[in-house]
């Protein structure tokens, strides 16, 4: 019996979870705090993250995963969850699979 390939939605959902965890780790490192402090549904602005910080984070993501995102990908991003959703969709579309430990702690 042939094994079934995971659906695109399942792959993207898995990607989103991994990207979200990586973003939380990266954001916590940037803010010099613990991962547990970062709520993915909390507005980034309330953590003091502005558009310049977001662009720097996106640049690091592009370098880390070896990909490029269209400039308009990140307009209207309010939360880590929003950012993870957009990044996961783009990575899935580009055929890039996020490893389980996308970013380890750098502290």
Please give a structural write-up.
The protein has 107 residues and is mostly helical. The chain has a single domain (8-93), classed as ACP-like (Non-ribosomal Peptide Synthetase Peptidyl Carrier Protein, Chain A, Orthogonal Bundle). The protein is 50% helix and 0% strand. The chain has three helices and no strands. It has helices at 8-31, 51-65, 80-93. Residues 1-5 have low confidence and may be disordered.
Question: Characteristics of this structure?
Answer:
107 residues, mainly alpha, Non-ribosomal Peptide Synthetase Peptidyl Carrier Protein, Chain A, 50% helix, disordered N terminus
List the helices and strands and how they pair.
Blueprint lengths: L7 H24 L19 H15 L14 H14 L14
Helix pairs in contact: 1-3
- Classified by CATH, the class is Mainly Alpha
Query: Sheet with the most strands?
Result: none
What is the ordering of alpha helices and beta strands?
HHH
Question: How much of the polypeptide forms β-strand, as a percent range?
Answer: under 5%
Structural class, judged by helices and strands?
mainly alpha
Tally of helical segments: 3
Number of spatially distinct domains: 1
Task: Summarize model confidence as the mean pLDDT.
Answer: 79
CATH architecture label: Orthogonal Bundle
Number of strands: 0
- Indicate the overall shape: globular
Rg (CA only): 14 Å
Give the low-pLDDT segments.
1-5
As a percent range, the share of helical residues equals 40-55%
CATH level 4 superfamily: ACP-like
């Amino acid at each position: 019996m042939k094994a079934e390939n995971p659906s695109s939605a399942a792959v993207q959902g898995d990607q989103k979870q991994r990207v979200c965890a990586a973003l939380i780790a990266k954001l916590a490192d940037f803010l010099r705090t613990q991962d547990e402090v970062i709520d993915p549904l909390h507005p980034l602005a309330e953590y003091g993250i502005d558009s310049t910080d977001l662009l720097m984070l996106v640049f690091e993501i592009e370098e880390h995963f070896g990909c490029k995102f269209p400039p308009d990908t990140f307009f209207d991003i309010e939360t880590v969850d929003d950012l993870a959703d957009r990044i996961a969709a783009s990575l899935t579309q580009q055929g890039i699979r996020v490893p389980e430990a996308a970013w380890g702690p750098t502290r």
